[in-house]
Design a protein that fits this description.
67% of the residues lie in helices and 0% in strands. The protein contains 8 helices and no strands.
Length: 189
């Protein structure tokens, strides 16, 4: 029985000159990274772009990966940064309504699909810093310590963002009006 090499072994193999090891890492993590990006951005094309940006950044910086954190933690951080970069560059032009919907075969499936779409739409309204923590913890099942490490923030901040993100998501799903964003901190003329 051939055991799959660990991420750490693949990173070391890449550093030793075996560039195919990166393809193995990408194949192993591509679906998860795309899912994080899609949940952050809500548009399939944007998620694909962010996934590609994340893997390009990973490739460029893999020789400098120190291994202080798990590879997946480091890759999640790169992905969240790629999503933030994309959000800054683009304004939303499409919504989940533009995405092809699932084929509905039964009322139970329809109810679940509608609920999932409602949660995804609501998640896109949650502020990005809360959204990132919610996605990593609730959808990707990452422990709070790993999220703190990936986002380079204290554990207490992760817990606070998780609490505030859940509260915001609950308010949005309940149809409560959203508070106005805080005023920008631009210097006065």
């Amino acid at each position: 029985m051939n055991a799959q090499p660990s991420d750490r072994e693949l990173v070391e193999s890449f550093r030793s000159g075996r560039r195919e090891a990166f393809q193995d890492l990408m194949a192993r993590h591509e679906r998860r990274i795309y899912n994080v990006a899609y949940r952050m951005l809500g548009v399939a094309e944007d998620a694909s772009d962010a996934t590609q940006d994340a893997f390009l950044s990973c490739y460029r910086h893999l020789d400098g990966f120190r291994g202080d954190a798990e590879f997946t933690t480091w890759l999640h951080r790169i992905t969240i940064n790629a999503c933030y970069d994309l959000m800054r560059r683009r304004r939303p032009t499409t919504s989940l309504d533009d995405e092809p919907g699932p084929t509905i075969s039964s009322p139970d499936h329809a109810d679940r699909a509608a609920a999932a779409a409602d949660v995804q739409r609501a998640l896109l309204i949650v502020p990005p810093e809360f959204r990132a923590v919610l996605i990593m913890h609730e959808l990707q099942d990452l422990p709070i310590d790993d999220i703190a490490e990936a986002l380079e923030i204290p554990v207490g901040t992760v817990k606070s963002r998780l609490f505030r993100g859940r509260a915001a998501l609950g308010r949005i799903l309940a149809g409560e009006p959203q508070p106005a964003p805080p005023p920008s901190k631009r210097p006065s003329p």
